[in-house]
Amino acid sequence: MSHNSLALTSAPEAQTTADTIPQTYAHALRGATIIPANTSEAIYAGTRELLALMLEQNDIVVEQIASAFFTVTLDLNAAFPAKAARQIGWKHVALLCATEIPVPGAMPMCLRVLVHFNATRPRASYRNIYIHGAEHLLDDDLATP
What we know:
This protein has a single domain (23-142), classed as CATH 3.30.1330.40. Helix 1 (40-58) packs across helix 2 (81-87). The longest helix is centred in the middle third of the chain and has 19 residues, at 40-58. By secondary structure, it is α/β, with parallel strands linked by helices. Strand 2 (65-72), helix 2 (81-87) and strand 3 (94-99) form a beta-alpha-beta unit. A 5-stranded mixed sheet has the order 3-2-4-1-5, covered by helices on one side. The chain is globular and about 50 Å long. The chain has helices at residues 40-58, 81-87, 137-142; strands spanning 25-34, 65-72, 94-99, 110-119, 129-131.
C-alpha cells in the first residue's frame, strides 16, 4: 500500500449493527424572548433563561445540540447572545448571531434562536418556547390571510 492511501479496518468487536444503535433524528427548535433593555447583562440573562427553558421543557442535554442560530432586532446591539450560551456550557456547539430583517412594525427588543439537535424522539414531542411577550410572534403564524 502506498503512503498516500489509507486502509480502514475495524476489529469485529467494534462493529455494530443497526439494531443496536438507537435511531436518531435531526430536529430544530425555535425560541424567542423580549429583552427588557439593550445592555449586555439583559441580553445575557434573557438568552440564558430562554436556552435553559428550551432544554428543560424538552428534556434535551447540551451534548445533543449541534448548532444554534441567534437573531436580534436592530435595537439589541450591546452583546452577542452566543456569549451567554458559552456561559452556560455550550462549549462545543456551533453558534452564530445575526440581526433580523428590520420589517416596519415588527416586534422590538426581540431575541430569537433556532437550535439544531439530535434525538431519538419524534418531532411532535418537542415544543418551541416563546416567553416575555414573544408569544405574540405566533399571532402571525395563526393569522388568516
